[in-house]
Amino acid sequence: DAKTTQPPSMDCAEGRAANLPCNHSTISGNEYVYWYRQIHSQGPQYIIHGLKNNETNEMASLIITEDRKSSTLILPHATLRDTAVYYCIVRAPGSARQLTFGSGTQLTVLP
Amino acid sequence: DGGITQSPKYLFRKEGQNVTLSCEQNLNHDAMYWYRQDPGQGLRLIYYSQIVNDFQKGDIAEGYSVSREKKESFPLTVTSAQKNPTAFYLCASSDGLAGVEVEQYFGPGTRLTVT
Question: How far is CA B15 from CA A1, A25, B62, B114, in A?
Fold first, then answer.
């Protein structure tokens, strides 16, 4: 699975959009980009995933560059409850594949 | 109300004792996983199971053992051979459909402290 690079921390004002970047320059053609988040002392929560098209769900939007070497997770209107560590994970499809978590980005939403 | 339950949330043990962490899921998922998380770090895979009565070692299996006698249950035993057992343990499951990209669902975790 491709390696990912994320900034260790970011701040965002409450009500503003939070844009979390992820670099995955060695991504292969069949690898998906996944985003999870982990609120302190809880289990990680799935947010969104995509292959090459931009994706949107009730939680967030995922923007993947045309060359697929980087992506951005967008939380359109961040709230204090969005404060968490956000993990960007790249992996190939297949059943029962483990997720390789890096250190992620600590997002702090400020009041 | 479907999901993954882990119990207990906090567990304290003396060094040299084996301890078993519980993980139950009612999502009818085939695959289950155990991860370990140390402070300020990402998750590391201990063991995973794709189907009942089958499991494979992950990256850090030494000092741990698992069983998968039922689809809904995947208990983890932390043995006295595990050198640094104090950590946050997370159980997850996924629908093991071959070739289909699926997300993993995580339990709330068990924080184990060994003194």
Answer: 36, 44, 16, 6
Using CA atoms in the order A102, B104, B68, B24, what is the torsion angle rounded to 10 degrees?
110
Residues of A in contact with B105 (CB under 8 A): 46
For residue A36, how far is the Cα from the chain centroid?
A: 6
Does the CB of A52 have a partner CB in chain B at under 8 Å?
no
Instruction: From A87, A88, A93, A57, select the one nearest A75 (Cα to Cα).
Output: A57
Residue-wise pLDDT for B60-81, tens only, equals 999 999 999 999 999 999 999 8
> From B57, which residue of chain A is nearest by alpha-carbon distance?
A98
B-chain residue closest to A91, CA distance: B101
The contacts of residue A29 (CB under 8 Å, 6+ apart) are none
A91: confidence class by pLDDT, cuts 50, 70, 90: confident
How many Å lie between the alpha carbon of A34 and the closest alpha carbon of chain B? 8
